[in-house]
Amino acid sequence: MPKNSEILLKLDRIDRHILDCLQRYGDLTNQELADKVGLSPSPCLRRVRSLEEAGIILHRATILDHKKLGLALTAIILIGMDRHTPERFAAFEAQVSEYPEVQECYLITGQDADYMLKVVVPDMDEYHHFLLNRITRIQGVSGVHSSFVLRRVIDSTALPLNYLGIF
């Protein structure tokens, strides 16, 4: 498997521009993307497909407005596990992967917790139900600490491409 630096060396200015445009404007047609990056459509499509085949572009998604869909409460949950075994972690991860409310799940260090989840639900009642009937019922969960998002100051899915060099 190539090292990260080997992959970065293969990305030129146009590849980086393509990635930047796709992160910011995921609904661009190939023609629109080609116009933005200064290519004709065929070479642009070849580059996008190459970036997909290299695993740099994982997938494209539509981002929905959570509040307009009635999902007004975002919680950050720190979860402690009773045992630190691969089997316990795998079982936990498999279980939370089944919950559509969980938007992000991280195995973390530096806290009095093993996992951090970002969860979106309609309201506090639904959060209470989710916590008591799902999270705390997962075998091995020994502690839960919840914090609630008051305001989303930065809410982005875009990666910082400035580390790839100037484009």
Please report the total strand number as a whole number: 4
Strands side by side in the biggest sheet: 2-3-1-4
> Fraction of residues in helices?
25-40%
CATH superfamily of the largest domain, called what?
Answer: Lrp/AsnC effector binding domain/regulation of amino acid metabolism (RAM) domain
Strand content: 15-25%
Question: How many alpha or pi helices?
Answer: 6
Distance between the termini: 26 Å
User: Rg, please?
Assistant: 20 Å
- Which architecture name of the largest domain does CATH use? 2-Layer Sandwich
Can you tell me the CATH topology of the largest domain?
Answer: Alpha-Beta Plaits
Could you name the ranges where pLDDT drops below 50 across 5 or more consecutive residues?
none
Indicate the CATH class of the largest domain: Alpha Beta
Mean pLDDT reading: 92
SS content category: alpha+beta
The outline comes out as elongated
Overall structural domain count: 2
Describe the structure using short key phrases:
alpha+beta, Arc Repressor Mutant, subunit A, 37% helix, four-stranded antiparallel beta sheet, elongated
Plain-language structure description:
The structure is a single chain. The protein is an alpha+beta fold and 167 residues long. The protein has two domains: 59 residues, Arc Repressor Mutant, subunit A (Orthogonal Bundle); 76 residues, Lrp/AsnC effector binding domain/regulation of amino acid metabolism (RAM) domain (Alpha-Beta Plaits), CATH 3.30.70. The protein has six helices and four strands; from the N terminus they run H-H-H-H-E-H-E-E-H-E. A four-stranded antiparallel sheet has the order 2-3-1-4. The mean pLDDT is 92.
